[in-house]
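Collaborator request, handled under Task 6.
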Amino acid sequence: MQLIAADIENAMTNASWIRRMFEAGNDLRRTRGADQVFDFSLGNPDVPPPAKAREVLHALADSVVKPCGLGYMPNAGLPAFREALAQKLSHEQEVPLEGKHILATVGAAGALVAFFRAVLEPGDEVLVPAPYFVEYGFYCGHFGGKLRPVPMQGPDFALDPAALLAQVTDRTRVVLLNSPNNPTGAIYSQAALQHLASAVNTLNDARKRPIYLLFDEPYRVFAFDGANVPPVLPLSPFSVVLGSFSKSLSLAGERVGYVAVNPALEGVETLLAALTLTNRTLGYVNAPILGQKLALGLLHEQVDLTIYDARRKAMATVLSQAGLRFSLPRGAFYFFPEAPGGDDVAFCQCLMKHGVIAVPGRGFGMPGYIRLCCAVDLSIITRSAEAFKAAMAEFSAP
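C-alpha cells returned to the collaborator:
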C-alpha cells in the first residue's frame, strides 16, 4: 500500500544531511554528555536578538488587545511594514522602491516557494552555483521545476558567470544566487554579477519567457573584514531580491521574510499580483503579524556581528592548527574546508568518533568538503581544537 507520493518517499529516504548529522549529534550527546560533543551541523543563530527587541515586544502586548490586533491583514503584508522595508531596501539596493514592490513572506523559504510557484512551469530549470543550500531542489521541485547545479571551483568558490551561462537552455527560467553563500561564505563580486546580468539581459531580448535573476540574501549583513555585498537590483530589470530577518535579527522562529521585485521590470504589477496570489493559495495567507510588527520595530537594528566575527577567527585558528585546508569565509557563518583525501562522508564519521559533528559537502552538491556552522558558543569552538587534531591524525594515518 503506497501511503505517500513516490517523490516524497524518495526525499525522505535521502533526507537532508544537515538534519541527519544534527540527529547524530543528539544521539552522541546522550551517550557522551553535552560537554564532550562539538556540534557544528545546524545553522540555527544563537546570538540573542538586539536588546531593543524586549522594548518592542512590550509595546506589542498593548497592541494585540485592540480589535483585529492579531487578525487577518492584506495578503502581501502589513502596509506600514512594507513601506518601511521598501525605504530600507532602497538604500541597500540603490534602487527606489515603494511598499507595493515588497511582499512579506513566511521567511526566505516562503519567499522562494511563492516565487517558484508564480513563475515555473513543469520542466523549467533553475540554475544554481554549487555548492548550494540543499532545500532549493525541493522548493522548485514541488512545482515540476528542476534544479541544475553548476559547480564553482575552489578554493574560494567565486562566481563563474561563464560556467553558468554555458548551462542556459530554452528551459532555463531562473538563475538563483545566494551571497553571502551558505555553505562557503563566499561573497560574489560586483564584476562577476555584472557580467552575468548583462548576458542574461541580452538573452532575454530574444525570449518570450525571461530568465529571472533571483538573489537569496538572508546573510547580507554578515560581511567581514570590510567586505562589501554589492547591490543587485541595479544590474537587471529581471532581478528579484529576497531575504529574511532570521539571521540578521535572530528571529528564525518568527518566520518573517520578503520579496522585493525590481520596479524596472516590464509588467512588474503582474508578477507582484502573482506572488500575492501564490503566497495566499500555498496556505501561508500572510506572514505572521507579530513577526512583521517585531521586524518593523527592529528594522534598523542587527545582531552583534563582533560575536560572529570572533567565532570565525577562532574557527580559522582551530582548523589551521589541525591542518585542514580551507578558504577564510568573507560572509555568513560557515566554513567549508576540504575533506582530507576527498571522502567527505568518511571524514565526517571520523570526526564524529572524536565528538565533532560536521555535514558532508555532498549534502550541498559538492562532495570532498565538509560544512561547519559557527553559530555556536565561542567556548565550543575553542574546546574542539584537540578533537579536530585527533581526528586529523587518525584519518591521515597510513
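The cover message to the collaborator said: "The longest strand covers residues 172-178. Residues 123 and 167 are 15 Å apart (CA to CA). Please let us know whether this matches your experimental observations."
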